[in-house]
Amino acid sequence: MEDVVPKGLTHADLIMPHPYLSFVHDPELTGDRMRVNERGMAGRDWPERKEEGTFVILLTGGSVAAQLAGLVPEKNILEEALNQHYKSEGIKRFIVLNGGGPAWHQPQQFILFALYAHLLDGVITLDGVNEMTNMNGISKSLGYGFEQPPDHYFAAIEKEGGGLKSMWPLRLDGALLRFQREVWLFRHSRLSYLVTNGVRRWARGIYARGEAGGTKSLRKKTTLFFAPPGGMEPDEGVLLDFDMYKKYIRMMHAIGTRLNVKTLFALQPVPAIGKDLSEEEMKTVGTITRERALGYLIVANSMELLRIEEKIPVYGLAGVFRDHRETLYTDAVHLNDSGLSILRDSILNLLEINWGLVRN
After folding, report:
1. What number of other Cβ atoms are within 10 A of residue 244's Cβ?
2. Terminal-residue alpha carbon distance, the chain
3. What H or E segment, with its residue span, contains residue 209?
4. What is the pLDDT of residues 204-216, one digit of tens each?
5. How many whole angstroms separate alpha carbon 1 and alpha carbon 11?
6. Rounded distance, CA 95 to CA 62, Å?
7. Judging by beta carbons within 10 Å of its beta carbon (0-12, 13-18, 19+), is residue 232 exposed, middle or buried?
8. Element (H or E) spanning 105, and its range?
9. What pLDDT, on the 0 to 100 scale, is given for residue 12?
10. In whole angstroms, what is the distance from residue 45 CA to residue 126 CA?
11. Closest CA to 130 of 100, 165, 174
């Protein structure tokens, strides 16, 4: 999301702590390319109460969910399509709320939904990659639990406390990401991209390990809050994290069932699965390892068992780009406008199947 950050700032400058959601965007630092509402979320303002004839949907997840739901109201392509093709006698208007955030992972989506479920008629999660990254044994041996908050949480606390000096690794990471996207050489040279990407990984690693100072003590204590049980074998750790992910999907579905809020859980597509990458994509996402791709596929297939065994609408979207050879990915996770449009259409199809929406 660095490409929508106002000039002179990085994404680390735009976040603030939230008492329940870990971190959100600071409403006072909004810009032309990303509008932040009073709840700290990108996009349109949120309603204060339900209105008859208005169908309100929360789209929540990580930064790809934030992209799809529109960083500014004019870019909310899911809401636009719903209002253009799916209005009915009982639904005069659709509103899609942006509930996505960079590096967000469960239980942030669950907590956001629980806070605002009384305003909603439907909820869609679009996630999976950040959850996999927080799984012991799938990504690596992490040394912390599935529910460990993202690094952005510690950065937000440092920012509010005035400890900006120790945020330099995140600032460097964001500045290099913008550099990669704006400078021609780094968009077209695989070697230049790999070198810059290596520096970005080094900077993120320094911050993640607390080596930049600042919140090192807080990070250590927080890790203990969410530490997995001691003495577990690696396979046990993997299964525990799978169960944690499923737990939050189950609870969101249970709340939705109780409050008459329709639910849909989508596992986002990733470059290494289900698409022949273009030459441009290979330069920017070709470093994804086969092991990481297979790990994500295992996670997605495991979550889809909830649909097969428990009738919870969970769908993997790994194959949505199977017939597309053009460039759709801008990096290892995010999509260009064409990719977002294809992803939107896939979700609309799932809403027809699961929510009974009828296209006009």
Report:
1. 19
2. 34
3. none
4. 665 555 555 555 6
5. 7
6. 19
7. middle
8. none
9. 72
10. 20
11. 100
Burial label for 84, CB within 10 Å (0-12, 13-18, 19+), is: exposed
Number of H helices, E strands in the chain: 13, 7
User: What dihedral angle (degrees, nearest 10) is formed by the CA atoms of 322, 327, 332, 337?
Assistant: -100
The predicted-structure confidence for 125-147, as pLDDT tens digits, reads as follows 999 999 998 887 665 566 778 99
Cα-trace Rg, the chain: 20
In angstroms, the CA 257 to CA 354 distance is 13
What pTM was computed for the model? 0.85
Q: Hunting for tokens 């909820």 — which residue is that?
A: 123
CB proximity list for 180: less than 8 A, separation 6 or greater? 186, 187, 193, 196, 197, 284
Q: What are the distances in angstroms from CA 336 to CA 75, 141, 344?
A: 12, 32, 12
Where residue 141 falls (left for φ over 0; alpha for ψ -120 to 50; beta otherwise) is beta
Say how many residues make up the chain. 360
Structure-block tokens of residue 325: 């050879």
Kindly state the tokens that stand for 352: 């027809």
CA angle at 204 for the pair 216 and 19, rounded to the nearest 5°: 55
